[in-house]
Amino acid sequence: MDQVQPRPAAVHDLRRAVAVQDLARLDAKRGVPARRSGDGPHPRRHRAVEAGALRRRSQSEARLSVRAERALPHRQPRLHPPRRPDQPVPPAPEKGSAVIRHRLYGKRIPGYPGYVAFSDGNVRGKSGRLLKPGPCRGYHFVNLVSASGAHVNRRLNRLICEAFHGAPPSPLHQAAHLNGVRTDNRADNLAWKTQRENEEDKDQHGTRQEPRRGEQNSRAKLTDANVQEIRRRYAEGGVTQQALSELFGVSSSIISGVIRGQRWTHVRDDGQ
């Protein structure tokens, strides 16, 4: 025989009765004599308390129903079916390709508690947010707080390499980019290499940058014309290296290197 469902009015009366019982227990704890709804000097307040208790109870029941609905089996994520034996395995993509979807996983950075390095080249800080790297000389740098509490600015590729490939074999090893892109700091694109091996890779990638000499260097204090004039005046005689250093605003050791041909070797006296 089917069970008869209670009417909404009956459910409301039942909830109201339960709320009144809760109020009676609360009054008993406080030492207030038992009373019915509407009795006493404040009947409106008593009815408001009953309504509030009923509202809170209905809200809690609604939350429980939502949690129960979320826990149903159809709410669980679907798992991919296993690969069939006759299904061919897709070929492995080439390393360094931009269309590869890498599996994202993270590892803790040694020496920096609270920081996590991810395989895609990002670093998560102590606040749970990803650090925003800053460019410097073509590389990415991030600010971290070490275990001793010191604020340091580290190169991002070296941090990723330390987290996924361990400590460098020696202090002279460099975190080399296998594809030659300095901003590609993925874990599988980094490896510890010596300076000679790194320079050989740059030759293969065509990313070697020749050092800026002479006027092209932003830290240069002399120009090609100054170097030619220094050599000409000293060759004519009647002037000392100290006087030339004071005239051009450089040290006497630089003047000596220019005169002897040890500095600014690419500048010739004939201006070629």
TrEMBL record:
Domain HNH nuclease: 157-199
Pfam families linked: HNH_3 (PF13392)
UniProt-recorded name of the protein: HNH nuclease domain-containing protein
Biased composition (Basic and acidic residues): 24-42, 58-72, 194-222
Annotated region described as Disordered, given as residue ranges: 22-97, 193-226
Cross-referenced SUPFAM superfamilies: His-Me finger endonucleases
Stored InterPro entries: His-Me_finger_sf (IPR044925), HNH_nuc (IPR003615)
Bias (Basic residues): 73-82
